[in-house]
Amino acid sequence: MLLLIIKLILSLAAIIIGADWMTNGASAVAVKMHIKPFIVGLTIVAMGTSAPELFVSVSSALESISSGNPGMGDIAIGNVVGSNIFNNLLIIGSVSLIAPLTVSKITVKRDLPIVTLASAALFLFLLNGSLSRIEGTFFCVCFLLFMWMTVRSAKENGDENESTENVQTMALWKAIICIIVGLGVLVFASDLFVDYASDIATNLNVSEKIVGLTIVGAGTSAPELATSVMAARKGQGEMAIGNVIGSNIFNILMILGLTGLIQPLEGITINYIDLSVLILAALLFWLFSFTKYKLERWEGAVLLALCAGYITWLIYSS
Questions:
Q1: CA nearest 284: which of 267, 268, 301, 269?
Q2: For a 10 Å CB count at each end of the chain, is N or C smaller?
Q3: Is 54 exposed, middle or buried (0-12, 13-18, 19+ CB in 10 A)?
Q4: Which of 256, 241, 288 is nearest to 95 (CA)?
Q5: In the chain, at which residue ranges do the beta strands (DSSP E only) sit?
Q6: Looking at residue 310, what is its pLDDT?
Q7: Apex 265 CA angle, 150 and 20, nearest 5
Q8: For residues 303 and 89, is the Cβ–Cβ distance under 8 A?
Q9: Whole-angstrom distance, CA of residue 77 vs CA of residue 251
Q10: Are 63 and 69 spatial neighbours (Cβ–Cβ below 8 Å)?
Q11: DSSP β-ladder status, 294-295 and 101-102
Q12: How many CB atoms lie within 10 A of CB 260?
């Protein structure tokens, strides 16, 4: 068991490193192609921090095909549900404790309602214990509409002379190698990560659902946690919030949309309690942000307490 846990941690570290290489390479290529920095941030960088969730969920769907194990669908869904719960409760709670967060009006009026609606849609789709290709297509279309709306808004309101100093620059050939190697590491490490997570579930005699919601969900949220905490410590609270919101939307709409298109997921045991916590976390994040457009430290403490309570319930119910 100890060896399995070490292998799981090492494969997760490889996933994060691969995502970082791929994101840096893609960002450098985008800058050389004179794509505006704010568009790079809204697309490539935002998606890069969610790459672990993407590759783990897709790998789980493919594994369910090859192994015939329907429980792998629970890892795919639990990965996203767990990641979003940790994003809204653990990450936002932790960042709010570091420093009160100011939330922009457009975030409160547009982005947070989309997170909540996407969570509610996932709740409805999973009531029958499955995610179909039609539902996956719906999520993908919604994601494309969200990206179009966000990029259009950024073009209208963004600074045309925005600096590229936060984007790593490198030679074109090196950037392409980073993309290829990073993608290869992501694919290989994600496959190992899913296998190790499944083996741990078997050894602990717990369901793939519990592993997906806890170990996998928390592990794949590591890039968002590190990015958001560092941003908060530097006084860049809006960046921390944007990182979490972008990840939440990408996780449900694009990752589960793409996963459902590749392989419809059947026999999902993620239940209404898990999905209700997902919606409650999104609603509390929205409600706390709506009051004075600011997240206070006590509100962060409430989010962390709810996170601790949910994890306790998961352990107790297993």
A1: 301
A2: N
A3: buried
A4: 241
A5: 101-102, 294-295
A6: 92
A7: 45
A8: yes
A9: 10
A10: yes
A11: antiparallel
A12: 26
